[in-house]
Amino acid sequence: MATITLPGPDRSLRRYATQPPRAFPARAAEPFNRVALAAAHVVADPLASADPWIETRLDWDATIAYRRHLWALGFGVAEAMDTAQRGAGLEWSSALELIRHSLDAAKDVPGALLYCGAGTDHLGAGAHRLDQVISAYEKQVAAIEELGGRIVLMASRALAAAARGPGDYAKVYDRILGQVKNKVILHWLGDMFDPALAGYWGHKDLDAASDVMLDIVKRHRTKIDGVKISLLDKQREVALRWLLPEGVRMYTGDDFNYAELIAGDGERHSDALLGIFDAIAPAASAALAALAHDEPKRFHDILAPTVPLARHIFRAPTRFYKTGVVFMAYLNGHQRHFTMVAGQESARSLLHLVEIFQLADAAGLLADPDLACARMATVLRLHGVEP
Asked: CA-CA distance, 269 to 299, in Å (whole number)?
């Protein structure tokens, strides 16, 4: 048991004692019965001579080491996605270099599963024509496929700005899906994760938007491995599971309700592509192993304590969840510092980080409480609090 002085919302200070961590295996012994992709974060290089708001410098050793950690726990990796600060500090050139490093690392890991995000983010801000959006998608897809990567077709801010209705979305996706070499994962990211994606698929009404997306999926079912839904709306996800063509997976992106969606209802279930897996990887791996052994109660017992932590990390403004994910990696010793690309370590308040520390402890997810307390103490001192 380790102790530390923590501040509260009323500005008071109180002594806090950690609990013993839960014991989880360091490696997955056998495959899961769900496809489980962890959207992995990136580790900034704090010693780089660069302006962090405008230049991306990554610590490649620590970044790739974390992917090896996820693979060892049985996860596939969803690379260069929003958890890796895509569109929030990680620009396309760095994303492509990241994808190259990860694909090289995956060659040394038997059975390593890796999907890579392709979008249009190199277009930058401003208005773009629809043909420019198509060309942007084509450029990124071609670059990833040339390296041998599999594609997550990410939602596009440029398309959301350029499209004048559902027909424009159909035109762009028909063109790209008609060209991809292998099956892709289609990604619908809600505006709670990225406000620039409001009204995606040409409708603000989600029922109408779902119909547009489903029409595209049905036309290209042979090119689509699955659809990742990140709307934090479990009823909608469950309904859409029944409407997807046979053989097209539903990948939950619901970082609030992941346990019940992955478990399923006895007839249908969701596979997973989740940012929260990055932060709770040991527990999620143990839970998925229990599910694979037909132990649903143990699955839920393991994951239930992680849900309050996940809901706090992903609380509104949800787009800042990456700060909590990286903070968890720092507390657990996966990186030496709490420095993020684009200075995003400042995106959450000190009290938010304190709550993450306490909820992680309550979930048994502080692997070494003494180390976690020492690192929490460093952050407290930087904010003028003596622990």
From this structure: 14
